[in-house]
Amino acid sequence: MKTTTKALATLAILAAGLMAGAASADDIKIGYINKMGEHPWFVAEVGGAKKAAEAAGATFVSQDVQFDSNLTITTFDTMVGDGVKGIAIVVPDKALGPVIAEKAKAAKIPLVAVDDDIYYQDGTQVPYVGMNAHNIGARVGEELAKLYKADGWAGKEVRIASIEDRKADTCMQRNKGAEEAFLKAVPDFKPANILRVPYDNTMVNAIDVMTTTLTANPGVTNWIFYSCNDDGVLGAARALENAGYAADQGMGIGIDGSRACEAFGSGKPSAFRGTMWLNSANHGALAVKILLASIKDGTKLPVQSFTDPEYITAGNFASDYKAKLCH
Where does the UniProt annotation place the signal sequence (predicted)? Predict the structure, then answer.
């Protein structure tokens, strides 16, 4: 009898402990801050993060800060005040990185940077989830070099437009990778024929700045362009079309796949030749999972967690990607 009573008491203690643990898990709240909430990339990314949090029994809150640095800081402080146990963030400006990182350290909560890498004041990298920016840019440059050779552009009046968001180091790393890989594959191409075109990371602005670039270079017959996302490349392609260039007078390859449906859905030829697709929902989900592992189990946050791209073109879009990407 004593043994049975003792066993029941032990089971009661274990059950109480399990219930407490479950309650503790349910009490975890994860915050997610992103810079451009209406963009398809971030819609999918935040959706993936929310799904991962809810599957683990955690509460999920998110905020779109629309490239507003002050709102970013205010949102971070509000989330901390509301009891979040960890935050994932896509910073609107890399310069905010050290500020946000130090705030997280002071609040004693884990922080994960998504898409754009950021650093502490001492130069230590904040745990990062996303793509290897330089390597994915290199993939773009390699594919553009293949197109350049296949289309017989050597000897034509060709310029490269490097469409750059200079506030985002990740963007600049992608463009750098594209440039280096292209020049390695096409060593006769003159670096002086690469034009650097600043833009604000939106397709509307990419159209504007590329239009200005075309106007300033009327003698150029063929254009190559790359950027840090699909918006920059599709914007450039549309600027060429608006200026009367034929689709085969331009070639650009995007990054992220968010505009693949617009670019390839009509079936019409376009200077937008392809995109390196990454499933951003996986980025959001992975960020949440490593935050939860840190909070619940004390698992050390990995410094870098990368995802690999898939190359989408007009040739494989309908058969392999349309059903996945277009709704």
Answer: 1-25
